[in-house]
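Moderator note: this is an archived Q&A kept for reference. The question asked for a predicted structure of one protein chain; the sequence and the answer are reproduced below.
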Amino acid sequence: MTPANHSITKKHLPLLLALFALCLFCASCGKKADPQPRVKTRSFELQDVAIEPTADCLSISGKLSGNAQNLERFRLDLGPVNSAEDCPGCPFLASKSIWFTPEEARLDEKSGAFSLNYCPAADNLQAPAYRWRLFGINAYDKIQHASTVARLVVMPPKAGK
């Protein structure tokens, strides 16, 4: 190297170091989230899930979109509340989790439609209203489960009250 070339390198050294630091900084930025499978063919989503009170029971229906064959089971999380106005902004706290197999939920793997019934009174869990959330548990444990948002269902008044 000649002395002239050596002085050009010294001039550019701060610029090169700054560029290197910028590259390191930019490489550390990015989306921070749980990893998702690259192959979406193993996942499914819950759609159009509805819950209807019928006497002392809850009738739940909905549809799985995606690969319904990978559903291992459903989990219904239920939390009794005193009334429909009982703390609407409070976090959902389930006091009971009820598990259903695809067969118990009458899952049609081709259409993805399912329907199931649960009677809280059978588990001594009686209340005028319930907060609930439904999960679809994937057979592949590394794939995120499908779930609904927490919602409220109000039971019909008992006859004679």
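Archived answer notes: The longest helix spans residues 3-28.
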